[in-house]
Amino acid sequence: MNINDIPPAPTPVKGGGGFGPLKFLKAVGLAVRSLWLHKLRSLLSVLGIVIGTSSVIALMAFGEGSMKDALDDIKRQGATNIVVRSVKPPDDSASSTNSKSMVAAYGLDSRDIARFQTFGKSITTMVPMRVFPSEARYLERMHNVRMIATTPDYSDVNKIQLARGRFFTVDDEENRINNCVLGAATADRLFPFEDAMGKTVFCRGDKYLVVGVASDRMPTGGTGGSQAAEDYNNDMYIPLSTANQYIGSKVSIRSAGSRSAEQVDIYQVTMTIDAEVDTKAGRQTVKAIGDQIKRLLEKHHDKKDWAVTIPLDRLEDAERQQERFTSLLVLIASISLLVGGIGIMNIMLATVTERTREIGIRRALGGKQRDITAQFLVEATVQTTIGGLIGVVVGLFLVFVVPVAPGAAAWLTQQTGLADTAAWLRTIKLPAQVNVPSIFLAVGVSVGVGVLFGWYPARRAAKLDPIEALRHTA
Amino acid sequence: MPAIVEVLDLYKDYFLEGHVPVHVLKGLNLSFDEGDFVALMGPSGSGKSTLMNILGCLDRPTSGQYLLGGDDVAHMSDDELSEIRSTYLGFIFQAYNLLPQYTVTENIELPLVYQGVKLDEKTKARCEALAEMVGLGTRLDHRPLQLSGGQQQRVAIARSLVNDPHVILADEPTGNLDSRTSVEIMQMLQELNRSGKTIIMVTHENDIAAWARRVVRLRDGVVESDVRNDEQPITAAAAH
Prior knowledge:
The complex is a heterodimer of chains A (474) and B (240).
Chain A: H1 21-36, H2 39-45, H3 47-77, E1 81-86, H4 91-98, E2 103-105, H5 110-116, E3 123-138, E4 141-150, H6 154-157, E5 162-165, H7 170-175, E6 179-182, H8 184-190, E7 200-203, E8 206-214, E9 235-239, H9 240-246, E10 250-255, E11 258-263, E12 268-273, H10 280-300, E13 306-309, H11 311-354, H12 356-364, H13 369-401, H14 405-416, H15 423-427, H16 436-462, H17 466-471
Parallel strand pairs in A: 2-11, 4-9, 6-8
Antiparallel strand pairs in A: 1-12, 1-13, 3-4, 3-7, 3-12, 5-8, 6-9, 7-8, 10-11
Helix pairs in contact in A: 1-13, 3-11, 3-13, 3-16, 11-13, 11-16, 13-16
Chain B: E1 3-16, E2 20-33, E3 37-41, H1 48-55, E4 63-68, E5 71-72, H2 78-88, E6 89-92, H3 104-113, H4 121-133, H5 149-161, E7 167-171, H6 179-194, E8 198-202, H7 206-209, E9 214-219, E10 222-228, H8 236-239
Parallel strand pairs in B: 3-8, 3-9, 6-7, 7-8
Antiparallel strand pairs in B: 1-2, 1-4, 4-5, 9-10
Keywords (chain A): Cell membrane, Membrane, Transmembrane, Transmembrane helix
Domain MacB-like periplasmic core (chain A): 42-287
GO molecular function, one term (chain A): transmembrane transporter activity
């Protein structure tokens, strides 16, 4: 075949080369190919990016998951609530004023309730309650319960959910009926083998008919100060009027080696404020009323025998904590991506040295500096992008695997019948909530890292002297 | 026959350690006709590689003119030189310089990529025809490392032709080959020259230079001798 029989050459495009949409896709294809030549090396060099993105996605998910748990918990407790509680004042003052009667009288009473009522409509419900630590009995079984005497609204305000039966009603309250509702654990302990409904429980010398059983519920976490952790499962609820009639206002408490009596009219008042917790104005309202209540109590009580708790404060604490956690994560992510980027830059510099001759050939055959820049920049970026995507997959894998690990460990133990070697696995409790924007962010940042850290090696490749590059022996 | 490559009063200085100038080319005047087959010879340090780099638009002279097809390309920008290389020049190297990760066809295609040409069936047909012309029609999908040295150099020849260049620059094309393969390659170059291609070749072997129509010897940056090989008189008939 003669050269003159060959199909003609295409017409060169003036100012050709560089970037273009189609060329870009082709460049990506070529980059993948040349990375594929060094699979292991390419993978190792993006390991930093993989670890960075996967840890961001996994930590984000776990952080968000546990934060959501905490927030749900607070919302369960009622984020628009204000809780006022009677607190035993410091010992000296109590004994000096009331030592003769041997009965410590302190805390809230009906006059306080009347004062709170001056807030009018901004308080939608007001639930007073009294608490008696007691022993509840059914036949030979006994359980230490927190007997709570309250009004029917308690169930709404504290978001009590019933597994069976009903909460006591206004009717029970008005007629001082001996009806009671049991917490899940209480019912379980007193009636392990039978249905609690319709049975009679003995407590403090009186009988109470079980009309409802609450469903199992996670205890609310306590945060220092006056906010105690509440475990609703060991509760037993009775109407307040019933308690006032049968138990009276004096409560004797037996504690190790001593006996003391206290007179507490109202142990706690829970008020629900008419406000939207998700709006700034609503939150302001709740806080403002909280402050007014504090001032009111300060004015009318000479002892500090009360405490005001605003769950919203905890909500805001939790939100602040989440913000702090997020910024910490961003820091960790930035560090690992920086390290990953340096890794990429390092490997790209090595690649440029190794492929000096190739660069020389491409330049001799008409490649412009910007063609070479584009080639190596695309290669670095493809590498980090793939790293980012692998990171996303690994991160999501962690998110979906870790929460089921306890179950899987239990199942394995059961199946194999071996000793529970992975017992610690079952103690892991990580609620996860995948943060979708974090996935896009992670991939986006990976691309950015590729461009940023690929730029210098790519420019260096482009600026090589073609003659020197051609002469380079690998 | 018009001159396709012409250098006028060409100087090239290098600066060693920053300040000491080394004069490599000292006022070179040369003119190569279209369709000619020139062998550049000379001992090392004679400046033949430097001249070759300037002719290949990989380097710029310190002063003087380089007319390629009538245009002065001596002092163009880097991008413009790249465009000149991809449009008007074909390169054949001693070490073949194929890209190992590419197939035969892809290697032949490479200069077109840098022309900004869209690769399609037509360009592919041209590349495959060129591969067939150099006797590698059955090895289009082979990688360079699967080929012998002679075969690789034939791929390089096909690649140097893909952009239909004005001039083919061959830098010791047989330097890495045994004598039998060298003859094959030289036959191929001669064949190309006979069908009208202008070839400028650097060599230090007399029997390789003997294939050319004209032999230019350099020494210390100036032309030492410039002779025509009598066996191959240039005629219009031979050129076409």
